[in-house]
Specification:
The protein has 112 residues and is of the alpha/beta class. The protein has a single domain, classed as Nucleotidyltransferase, domain 5 (2-Layer Sandwich). The chain has three helices and six strands; from the N terminus they run ββββαβαβα. It has helices spanning 45-53, 66-75, 87-96; strands at 2-8, 11-12, 20-27, 30-38, 58-61, 78-81. Strands 1, 2, 3, 4, 5 and 6 form a six-stranded mixed β-sheet that branches. β5 (58-61), α2 and β6 form a beta-alpha-beta unit. The longest helix is centred in the middle third of the chain and has 10 residues, at 66-75. The radius of gyration is 13 Å and the shape is globular. The termini are far apart.
Length: 112
């Protein structure tokens, strides 16, 4: 599986206008590699296609609007929201089952 988080300076950032994403390749419940990619020049729903094209299956975000959440669902990428800080810690806690995951939509009101 591959997990993505919107990323800047080690922290999880808001999704819709994120300049970078940190990708985590996971095997047997462990992080085996990471990479930071740029947003490919996309914003909002274009980012979702960019992530899918990079093999992402799960995305962990701090906040996202309904339109973005619907686009993730349509792309077949699992989406979770929470209050995130350090990206590596968030992913490690997710893998350990210690991260409180929410499927609620809150934040951005972008509609296009």
């Amino acid at each position: 599986m591959k997990i993505a988080v919107p990323y800047m300076d080690g922290k999880v950032t808001p999704f819709g206008r994120s300049d970078y994403f940190k990708l985590y390749d996971i095997e047997n419940g462990k992080i085996v590699s990471t990479a930071v990619i740029d947003n490919g020049g996309y914003e909002h729903t274009g980012l979702i296609t960019h992530l899918k094209n990079n093999g992402v299956t799960i995305t962990l975000v701090g906040n996202i609007g309904q339109h973005g959440a619907d686009a993730f669902a349509a792309a077949g990428i699992e989406l979770y929201t929470s209050n995130f800080d350090d990206a590596d810690t968030v992913v490690s806690k997710y893998l350990d089952g210690a991260l409180e995951l929410k499927k609620e939509i809150r934040g951005c009101s972008f509609a296009g």
